[in-house]
Amino acid sequence: MKMSKLFVQTLREFPSDAEVVSHKMLGRAGFIKKLAPGIYTYQPLMWRVLKKVENIVREEMDRAGAQELLMPFVQPKELWEESGRWEVYGRELMRLKDRHDREMCLGPTHEEIITSVARDGLKSYKQLPVNLYQIQSKFRDEIRPRYGLLRGREFIMKDAYSFDIDEAGLDKEYQNMAQAYKRIFERCGLETKMVQSDSGAIGGSVSHEFMVITDTDAGENDVFYCQNCDYSANSNHAVSKLPEAVVDGKDYFKETKVIDTPNTHSIEELSKFLNIPSTLILKTLVYIVDKKPVLALIRADKTVEETKLMNAAGGIDIRIATSGEIAEFMAEHGFDAVPGFIGPKGMSDLKIIADETVKDMKNFVVGINETDKHLVGANLEDLGVELNFTDIRLVERGEHCPDCGKPLFVTKGIEVGNIFKLGTKYSKPMNAVYTDVNGKTHPYVMGCYGIGISRTAAAAVEAHHDEHGIKWPLAIAPYHAVIVPVNIQDELQMKVANALYETLKNSGVEVVLDDRDERAGVKFKDADLIGFPFRITVGKTISEGLVECKIRETDEVVKLTPEEVKQNIIDAVLSLEE
Ligand code: ATP
Ligand code: MG
Predict the structure, then answer these.
(1) Suppose 114 and one of 161, 164, 363, 552 were both cysteines; which one would form an S-S bond, judging by CB atoms 3.0 to 4.6 Å apart?
(2) The Cα angle at residue 264 between residues 259 and 268, in degrees rounded to 5
(3) Is 544 exposed, middle or buried (0-12, 13-18, 19+ CB in 10 A)?
(4) Domain segments of the chain: what residues?
(5) Which residue's alpha carbon is nearest to atom 25 within ligand 1?
(6) Which atom of ligand 1 has the smallest separation from the CA of 417?
(7) pLDDT tens-digit profile of 339-392?
(8) How far is the centre of ligand 2, averaged over its atoms, from the C-alpha of 188 (Å)?
């Protein structure tokens, strides 16, 4: 490809709405063009990258025994009603009507469709196990599309679904997919961590996410990990051992009584006022889960993890209650306390979820729904409500690994893929069954396995760049190399550049010849910005028979003969072949 012909417009500035590196660089280097929020054109350079990621994914899925198909992007409501998700999916599901007024949606994921495909085709245990996958655009009307390709509304995903006769079969396929994912991300030049993660309200399910670890804002997930053993988990799922703490207030409170605690609206103010550690305070928070108030009880030095709470409440949507909503439900229960003085007293008609930290508390302090008052020296039986204890606590730095007891560390991660044991979540309601040896029918035991193709490409930019631009890993770079003749008027330079271009091209190297009549500085800048793994500069040193080869990843520059350069690059490219 000649640079003069390449369809690319690099910009002087970063796109004005870009907050993270990958969005800034992919925009400025001309890889993507925004059409609407979260909706992008993948320009030719981007499309080459995406096709490479797709092909690595395809090769490894095929190697792992999965079969590729392609399902429709537009899906009828009826299948979503069968699974029960039409009602609960929420506004991320883009719904529309056809000319006959039939309701449809744009596929955000394909569990319903694949389950209907499977139930028509997989009738007998003899046909199982099967793993089917596709690579396709998805649409989710994300509430906050942002960060360019990292969280788009239209994006490309690989989604795979496995069908087994039993849990043991699923376990095996789950491991098989975990191995395939490791190979996929390694081949893409990405270091990932496989972490335990939340698997929603379905009890007993297992899921893992593959995270690209990053210290930038682009990492939307907190990952807790142990350096001593291999424990690692998304914060929405992580658990820990707590250091020792004072949880019995017997040295502070000799009796159980209500006392005045004026203006103690925060935990800090209350513990200061009473001169006690915050570990002796029972904190009550009000959340709205699926439109209904839920009370969360937790030891006051700890924080509620919202996904855990949402799962414990059996919901699919959660947010903290507004002060207006709190006032409203206080009034409904005959109280008028303001936040800071709320407690479980008299609330037994509501869902109350207590964290496990509450279980061991004795002679503690708790709100009783009266402003400027607290009950001190209280015990669980004084609360007047029945409590179930569940882990709804956010793990924090400094707490200890649940497996080996060593300190946990936290870092940010970008989720590029996940693997999920679905069990019979879809096969059961959709009556997708196989017949066993004895002629009895059973629902398939399913797994699902996603990879964000476009997100993976953007995550690669987050992980590989410097202030000048992208440093594509060779395996997913749009082109392997660029040849820059410093002066296109110079006959010798052009002759060498052209010859090198032809031989590299003929040896399977994807190469761009920057034949533009521009200053060398401009061409170098573009080469760095676009992120070609190799830049070969043909300049004055050609009179000594040498060209310059720059390796973008390390910025290392070496002077070599054209023959040596050619061999080095060809070797590097050949080593990509599996
Ligand atoms: P997230 O928690 O980031 O919203 P998710 O759990 O909704 O992800 P899945 O439904 O499991 O994601 O989708 C599988 C993969 O698709 C994810 O691991 C991610 O790589 C990718 N993905 C999900 N949502 C988006 C999006 N809005 N833009 C780009 N890629 C996405
Ligand atoms: Mg999502």
Answers:
(1) 161
(2) 120
(3) exposed
(4) 21-189+421-463, 257-390, 479-575
(5) 151
(6) 18
(7) 999 999 999 999 999 999 999 999 999 999 999 999 999 999 999 998 989 999
(8) 23
For residue 450, the ligand 1 atom closest to its alpha carbon is 14
Q: 206 falls in which pLDDT band (50, 70, 90)?
A: confident
Structure tokens at 265: 């609206």
Ligand 1 geometric centre to CA of 304 (Å)? 24
- CA of residue 227 to ligand 1 center, whole Å: 27
Q: What percent of the chain has pLDDT over 90?
A: 93
Distance from residue 108's CA to the centre of ligand 2 (Å): 9
**Common-topology check for domains 257-390 and 479-575:** no
**pLDDT score for 217:** 82
Task: Note the pLDDT of residue 215.
Answer: 80
- CATH architecture label of 21-189+421-463: 2-Layer Sandwich (3.30)
The pocket around ligand 1, CB under 6 angstroms, is made up of 109, 140, 142, 151-152, 155, 157, 415-418, 450, 452, 454-455
Mean pLDDT over 311-327 rounds to 92
Query: Yes or no: is domain 479-575 CATH 3.40.50.10330?
Result: no
Mutate to test the pocket of ligand 1, among 151, 211, 448 (most ligand atoms within 8 A of CB): 151
Q: Which residue has the tokens 């996940």?
A: 418
- Ligand closest to the CA atom of residue 454: 1
Percent of the chain predicted with pLDDT > 70? 99
Nearest to 365 by CA among 249, 237, 273: 249
Identify the CATH number of the domain defined by range 257-390: 3.90.960.10
pLDDT 10s digits, 453-503: 999 999 999 999 999 999 999 999 999 999 999 999 999 999 999 999 999
Name the closest ligand to CA 141. 1
Model confidence pLDDT, tens digit, residues 23-36: 999 999 999 999 99
Q: Which two tokens stand for residue 30?
A: 């001309």
Of all atoms in ligand 1, which is nearest to the CA of residue 418?
18
- The closest residue, in CA terms, to atom 13 on ligand 1 is 450
Cα(328)–Cα(331) distance, integer angstroms = 5
